[in-house]
Fold these 3 entries.
Entry 1:
Amino acid sequence: MKRVLTIAGSDSGGGAGIQADLKTFMAFSVYGMSAVTAVTAQNTRGVAAIAAMTPEMVAEQIREIVSDIGVDAVKIGMLFSAEIISAVAFELKKLDHEIPIVVDPVMRAKGGGALLQRDAEQAFRALIIPHATILTPNLPEASALAEIVVNDRDAMVKAAAVLTDMGASAVLVKGGHLKEDVAADLLWFEGEGQWFESSRIDTRHTHGTGCTLSSAIAASLARGLPMDQAVGLAKRYVTEAIRLAPGLGSGNGPLNHHWGQSAWI
């Protein structure tokens, strides 16, 4: 069984963060492990409070997992502070360079709460992006990291090029915020772009889509799929998880991570 480690924050509502990651890993039949960077008190209406782990505790979780169980892929989500970013980057340097690292630049929650401190953005660019086998920003995240306005397909291409210049091996710019009838994502890999499109689903139940997509990519890469196939499979999984969402909560509701059962093995 392939082993995938998520380094991310905890979502008490279960829709995003390490909870979404572990559910996705199970759906893809890989063994999931977690290094918790922060604990959040949140539900579908938003984030009420955040308590960050110490950088030392985050690093120790990673070391204990790697030294005993081992990893075949890593997914990185909410890192919250420059100090945690530095600690994680130090541990990533110790890993085999062949291990895929999927980086989801979690900066804000669906409800608007800040999940990455403003003064940590430069540390993220300098210390985390160069480790990314694939970076998966949405449009606001791509805008912030590339420092350009990303609101159409042409700008998505420009942002992807900027972010690969920062050191990411591949970039998936997610177009969920585009004003189009389709949900279009751009994979920029080895100097070429590939579009992945799906029908847009009119729903408020989209909490944790970014976490879920990046975790599905990590699981697929751990299982040996090439990059384009891993992205395509992950997008199909997330699309159906949105379409079949259980309808929980009064705000941005969670997805149905279990819809496929064994279909994704």
Note: The CA atoms of residues 55 and 84 lie 5 Å apart.
Entry 2:
Amino acid sequence: MELYIEAFFDYLRVEKGLSDNTIYSYAEDLKKYVEYLKKNKINEPNKINRKSISDFLFILRKNISPISISRVLSTIKSFHRFLLREKISSADPSHLIDTPKVDKKIPNFLSFEEVSSLLKAPNLKNKQGIRDRAILELMYATGLRVSELVTLKYGDLNIDVGFLKCKGKGSKERIVPLGKTAERFLTKYTSESRPKLLKNHECLNLFVAQGGKKLSRQSVWKIIKAAVKKAGIRKKVSPHTLRHSFATHLLEGGADLRSVQAMLGHASITTTQIYTHVNQLRLKKIHKQYHPRA
């Protein structure tokens, strides 16, 4: 089974263009699945049936949430579709297993005032603070995922035109507008801060740490955590919170759903529609708070 899994990962990496992080998630799910199959003396794909998969998922339900169950089943379905496609299996035993219905979680986002406080938190008197302000401004202006931010190349940025080129999930490229404020702080970072951080070293990445090293995802988390603390925000804030805030504020301002989908890089508009629910909940809250008969 391990050989088939390795072939599956090669397929995901080469033909599907999935990132290492996504493939790692698949690997974790399949590891549990294969361990269960081996425990039940199932060592060949053609010996797996619908009951094998259902029993495995039933065991998982004792320890993980419906959302996680849905993700694991999606991985299993992808794996079995691959086995059928490659003629390793004669049938797909996962075909008739329904994905459990999961209530969509309403994304956590910040108010305009909270975003403003967060963006102003970095100290612009030092090179790291200028970089951190540019990062926060860019994330809020574009809705970039943290994985997309840390892999941005210097050449992906075109401040003169006001756009950047971003490579998202599945290596799909998209062009995202920057906005005047993000442009201003990115100009300050690239002209003042980045050369000092590089210290005569070379790095293709846009955002760098001291000595010209590539900035890591963990570093961005720390930057946001420090800004949240300094801004006095008590909500739980992650890099994705800025992405949620970007989308929510665009829709509140009257942006159409298709445009927001394009800027976020969502493959399906269904994913983007969750933000319309956020907007509706906010309107209900305002109505309840201010209408005399609410």
Note: The beta strands are 157-158, 163-167, 173-177.
Entry 3:
Amino acid sequence: MPRNLDLTALRSFVAVADMGGVTKAASALNLTQSAVSMQLKRLEESLDAALLDRTSRTIGLTPAGEQVLGYGRRMIALNDEVFGKMTDQAFEGTLIIGVPHDIVYPAIPRVLKLFNADYPRMRVQLLSSWTLRLKELFAEGRCDMILTTEDHVDPGGETLVEKPLLWYGAPGGTAWQKRPVPLASEPHCQFRRTMHRALDSAEIPWEMAVDSDSTRTVEATVAADLAILAQIEGTVAPQLEIVPHNGALPPLGEKKINLYVSDVANSAVKDHLADLVRAAYGAPRLALTA
């Protein structure tokens, strides 16, 4: 059966070893000398090994004690790190991150999971909207950071990745072959005008088959093979696939995924969240290792 080491006794042992005696260790730990001596005895009994060499006037370590000392320092440091992170009031609060609807998946859920594991007392509020609205909220100071999908990057922002914008439809679907081409989009979607301009330049007629503020409605319509849409490569819902048009539809170019981080109230916690976002969207397939 596994047995657990007494961290309090282990801390006393490390203190005695580092300070060269029980008296100094007791003073540093704010304990009595007898309390420290009892903890040392309890630790030796639990390990069934002598850790201190008491044959001389000064306390030394036995070979077993030298080995335990290395483990003890690491265990106490890890204990203190966990306790500090879980109880430090500096790691409490809320961070607000704005992300366009169409690039939430697959990266953002993984980012939030990793961040929560590192800072369980912090709350991340996800605000999903379209790029122009997110930039307005960011300018008003209502978001700590935002992601955008744009053709350019404004001052103060950074481009995480530039990826192709592709036509997506239902698996094995034929909606892309219809004329006019049935399109699906949210009214404020950044890719809406890109689809229109590309089709107009290619002199291919089109119509809006669905024009809804609901991402789910748009995706369901496309999944039913009633329309097609434009999406950044690698960010589409799993029930959709790239349209195999072989040049029958015009190319849509590329889009930048940009990150803007507020410089108000800088903190290590916010920087850590931003680094997780950078890692997620900078990866080739917009994914993180769990």
Note: The two ends are 31 Å apart (CA to CA).
